[in-house]
Amino acid sequence: MRDFIARPEHGIVWISGASSGIGRALALKLAGEGYKVAVTAKSHERLVDLQAEASGLSGNIIVLDGDVTDAEDMEHVLASIEYEHGTLAMAILNAGVYLPIHAENLNRADFEKSFAVNLSGVVNCLVPAIRHMKAKGQGQIAIVSSVTGYGGLPNGAAYGATKAALINMAESLKFDLDKMGIRIQLISPGFVDTPTMGKSAFLMPALVSPEEAARQIAAGLKSQAFEIAFPRRFTTMLKLARLLPYGAYFPLMNHLTGWPPLDDHHPVMPHPAE
């Protein structure tokens, strides 16, 4: 039996973190394909602008405000989808934050916020989504991770750690969800030109636009693949690089990212909380 693939007639697609970047572009892409898309983010104004932009498309966008770090908010979002708009057919858990980590100026706050949004935020969405899909006996879930989860990269001690955890989480959940009729996929983009990644201090090879990322993801959601990884050549190279001994891995990553030696780093500045 082939895995469930959500189509517009199956119900609602829910996208978290849809106010900008990949989430926004993907919402427009799926609405253009006829899907009814519920979008969640903290910025109500951006979501309303997104809804207006989709007004001429074959599908439509529903604005549901919510903060993924608040579990009760996510319960309310799922209740609103089910009782006001229709069956939840697909959940795309995309909300994330990138906070660059510099070992010269380490602080807990950046780690705590990264974990709260990127990791706990996914769990806060997963719990009600799986409960609703389990009751229907079918559904599709896609978790947005990143190639930064494949191995350590400059500035990625918090972001990469959360994305590595999401990879493991998706892989582990697949064993049980397969038996429940719920299909789970892992989305592993390379570097995407979003406001979040604009904070990066290193070179980002094979950079793609949010629109290209949305095109790749939309196609992958309709495939039988567990992982949707792109651009293919770059993501494959990073996977293979992780098999190298550390003596080769670190020089290769330094070369690919253009990461400077320690003497060329920015000066150490006090963290605002200190």
Automatic annotation (TrEMBL):
Xref: Gene3D superfamilies: NAD(P)-binding Rossmann-like Domain
Pfam family, one: adh_short
Highest rank taxon of the organism: Bacteria
GO CC aspect terms: membrane
Matches recorded under InterPro entries: NAD(P)-bd_dom_sf, SDR_fam
Keyword Oxidoreductase: yes
Organism field: Rhizobium etli (strain ATCC 51251 / DSM 11541 / JCM 21823 / NBRC 15573 / CFN 42)
Name of the protein described by the UniProt record: Probable oxidoreductase protein
Protein family: Belongs to the short-chain dehydrogenases/reductases (SDR) family.
UniProt keyword annotations, A-Z: Oxidoreductase
Keyword match Oxidoreductase: yes
GO molecular function terms noted in the UniProt entry: oxidoreductase activity
